[in-house]
Design brief:
Immunoglobulin-like; alpha+beta; 189 residues
């Protein structure tokens, strides 16, 4: 048996040659994959489609929203800013324990959009001798909220002020205070 004795130099050269061939094959393979990818992208692009949407938008004009109030149901006032519609002080003068005072409050939608009226905010303020202290007078607005108010329609709710039936004359005799009732109508969409 004859063997070809290869030298270390020959072995190293053969390894380098095999390595160069592998690198060349890898480069050509990657180039082929890249070309196939580009071709596939061009092909898949021809198999797709797009849908476009376009719209114009505007904001609601605040002048379209108008909630007005009235004490008599005939004379309407926007009352957008303080002091608002003033309730005659004689209506809430000389409160007697356990005897509620009811004042009708009228609301009307005079805007151009339907409104939803949320639960009103009743804010009592005390005078020198606090009428709205614990155990004294309370104030609430009756009704079920939110309240739907279509364009041009009006409704009536009641402000009820009651001095507690157990209020002592020593604590609440001559007491005073004031009330603010705020209604808010928002667009019903």
């Amino acid at each position: 048996m004859t063997t070809d004795p290869m030298t270390d130099v020959d072995l190293a050269a053969a390894r380098d040659e095999r390595k160069r061939k592998k690198v060349a094959v890898a480069k050509y393979s990657l180039a082929g994959v890249a070309l196939l990818g580009i071709g596939a992208a061009l092909t898949s692009a021809a198999w797709t489609d797009s849908a476009w949407f376009n719209a114009q938008a505007t904001a609601l004009d605040p002048d379209d929203i108008e909630l007005e109030g009235s004490l008599d149901g005939a004379t309407w006032n926007p009352a957008d800013e303080g002091p608002g519609i003033m309730i005659e002080s004689t209506l809430l003068a000389n409160l007697v324990p356990g005897d509620p005072v009811t004042i009708p409050l009228h609301l009307k939608n005079t805007g151009t959009l339907p409104l939803t009226v949320t639960t009103p905010v009743v804010t009592p303020e005390n005078g020198d001798i606090p009428l709205f202290a614990t155990g004294g007078a309370t104030a609430e607005v009756t009704g079920e909220y939110p309240l739907a108010l279509p364009v041009g329609h009006d409704t009536t709710v009641n402000l009820v002020v009651t001095l507690d039936q157990n209020a002592s004359s020593e604590t609440f005799g001559g007491a005073s205070g004031s009330l603010t009732v705020q209604f808010e109508g928002s667009v019903d969409r």
